[in-house]
């Protein structure tokens, strides 16, 4: 199932509860006549810290591979596309409400990891079972194991063009720097 901006956020786990509370708080400003634009961010890929640095770590030690089933969706976005999308939404007066700020082509975790390994010239051979991930990460394991296929339909309908819609291009750009 793919999630677009028409889906309302409801709290059912750690991450969705944060999103639900944040969006509910932000929507209060609409009553004051303020245009409210809510960004629902995917995994932000950047060399300035964050998820990519954490994802690269096991591959740097030659132990990167599949996490859990490997079938979970990773909805990601290159930092440059994220910045351009935010500027686009600020400057577009017709933009309001929630926007999924993710690349238009999400990837399954196993393929994401394989693509990252190729960009780093490292193997993608290990496997960490879901149970081990839940024991190690606790509640935070939901961020890695319980994911959603999120699509940026609304921002694309307004005419936004992604420079990095392809994961291979995005990772090669970031890894080469």
TrEMBL record:
Residues 128-174 form the DUF1731 domain. Keywords: Cell cycle, Cell division. The keyword Lyase does not apply. Gene3D superfamilies: NAD(P)-binding Rossmann-like Domain (3.40.50.720). InterPro entries: DUF1731, NAD(P)-bd_dom_sf, SDR39U1. This is Cell division inhibitor. PANTHER family: EPIMERASE FAMILY PROTEIN SDR39U1, SUGAR NUCLEOTIDE EPIMERASE RELATED. Coiled coil: none annotated. GO terms for biological process: cell division. Signal peptide: none annotated. It holds the Pfam family DUF1731.
């Amino acid at each position: 199932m793919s999630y677009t901006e028409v889906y309302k956020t409801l709290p059912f786990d750690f991450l969705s509860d944060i999103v639900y509370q944040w969006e509910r708080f932000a929507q209060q400003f609409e009553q004051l006549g303020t245009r409210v634009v809510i960004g629902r961010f995917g995994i932000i890929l950047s060399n300035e810290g964050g998820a990519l640095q954490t994802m690269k770590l096991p591959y740097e030690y030659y132990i990167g591979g599949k996490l859990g089933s490997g079938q979970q969706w990773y909805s990601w976005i290159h930092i440059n596309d994220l910045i351009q999308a935010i500027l686009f939404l600020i400057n577009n007066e017709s933009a309001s409400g929630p926007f999924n700020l993710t690349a238009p082509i999400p990837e399954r975790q196993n393929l994401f990891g394989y693509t990252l390994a190729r960009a780093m010239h490292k193997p993608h051979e290990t496997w960490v079972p879901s149970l081990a991930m839940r024991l190690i990460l606790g509640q935070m394991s939901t961020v890695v194991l319980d994911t959603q296929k999120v699509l940026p339909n609304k921002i694309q309908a307004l005419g936004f063009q992604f420079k990095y819609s392809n994961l291979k291009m995005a990772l090669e750009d970031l890894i080469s720097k």
